[in-house]
What does this fold into?
Amino acid sequence: LKKHKIILVVTILIILLAGFGVQTYITGIWSSWVDYRSPLSGFVVAGDDWSSSAIGNRVIIILIDGARPDVVDEYSSKGVYQFIRQNGVLFSNAYAVTPTYSVPARAAISTGLPHELSGVSSNWYDAGTLEIPSIFSLAHNRGLYVAAIGDGSIETLFGDYLDVYIEIEEKEGHMYDSINAAIELLDSNNPPNLLWIGLADVDHYGHLYGAKSSEYKSAVEEAGTLIEDFIQFLMDKNIFDDTLLVVVSDHGHLDRGGHGGEEEVVKRIYLGLVGGGVKQNLEIVESVYQMSIAPTILAYLGLSPNLIAYSPPLHKAFMDEYQEIFSRYSSRLIEIYLDALYYLMQEYDIDPILYQDKLDQVLEYKNLISNSILNKDFVQALNYSSHAYSNLEDIYGEIRNSIITRTSAIRYSLISVIGVISVLLLYISYKLLLGRQLIIPFTSAVIISAVFWTMFIGLFGYSTSMSAINVLEDYITAVMFSTLLAVIIGAVVASIWLRKILMYVDKWFIIVSVYLITILIAMIILSIPTMIMIFQYGYKVIFPFPNWTIGYLYYTSVLSIMFMMLFNWIIAVILVVFLYKK
Ligand SMILES: [Zn+2]
It folds into this structure.
């Protein structure tokens, strides 16, 4: 009798300690995500030998944080939204890349690279100014006047290249103050050539009240009015005609508020261009990504295409006389993209011969583009360059896949070993401990896992999407309480059942056995997303990125396992309380 009591107390302590061990593991996963480094950070782009005429003198990017295009559409006859429809180009199928967070989106907009190549993978990025070329670094290095207003993330990511940064406190009226600061800056003798204006209110109300709320909607409307007034100022000041205005959002919002995941309403962004050289009254319906914005801006300012630009520039938004600039620009971008792919293949020990056909095709397109440019057939040149781009994207996709699959054999064996050990443990429990009564802890473990996910999704309202991790503390609390409730309910069910059929003489023996087996099986069931993640991608966030939905479920399941280990004593206590007097 005494022996079993000692075993119980010792196991509780061991599992508790192991729970703290899992906490270290979780911290490791978290840092692998937020401290992620781009494999291209050591990639030095070719020298600045670009000479092209600029389309205009100035680019102003106005970021309406978190504005959902379908909500913007409700105001399409108002403010800047109407102005862009009539006097500019609207991209009605523009997309952000996942995870759909603000800071990675700013990096994608400014570098032309998706998150796994820009190196900015989360909102918690704090590794200082980005090494990868960006619109800010290239403009700054060319001696242009670069400024940003009201967007701390731009300071974090590109601080070294900003000549001026004006902080606007993120409280009510942020939009109004930011636009006013911009007007003041542009009203001087020396207005900036590249200006970023961040408007935070829409996202703020999105998080507080959701995208269906009147607060969110009126912030969208107000942004439209403020930007329209701003355009009026540019016209009065006579600088509208040599300025490109990019009005864009970084991501959308869920109806109930939140973003980060892969939901359509979260991935869709607003994107409109207006200003000197831009076509009028045009809606472009083909899908474009936020990575197309950086090369568009650089081509507009006549700056060298020294970024990799994962997506081609938005040349269709510009008047015919500028298609030559975009043809030459795209052609150079293709070269740099190709260089970057060779660099990646070298870094990851991949033989280019595997993609020889597609690489040859790209080179062939390169020749066709050059010939078309010589013949002044720029429409054809840009046509070929879009083919070249889709080939490059294919090759990039295949490189990703080959990196992901090549270590899968090791991961598969690891998972198999864990599987065999689990089955063995269950068999031992069956033979030595409980026999047919194994059904009791088994049921209780199934209940624990089911209650956990039901609580987490049903009660706390977390979907199976990354959009949940907006307020980190709330999310962790939800996982903790769901686990706590699951553990209590699972243990109570096991105890009541055992009370009815208790047949062992040694009560303490059955308490220890049921307690142990419940935890073991619950851990196996809860770790299913963990196994899927480790099997498919490994246990850390590395290049190339995992599927974020699986990654998020993985993180959630490891968290719930940790809490179950920390709460493991509750199962024992409930069993003892229920069975002690029987
Ligand atoms: Zn947000």
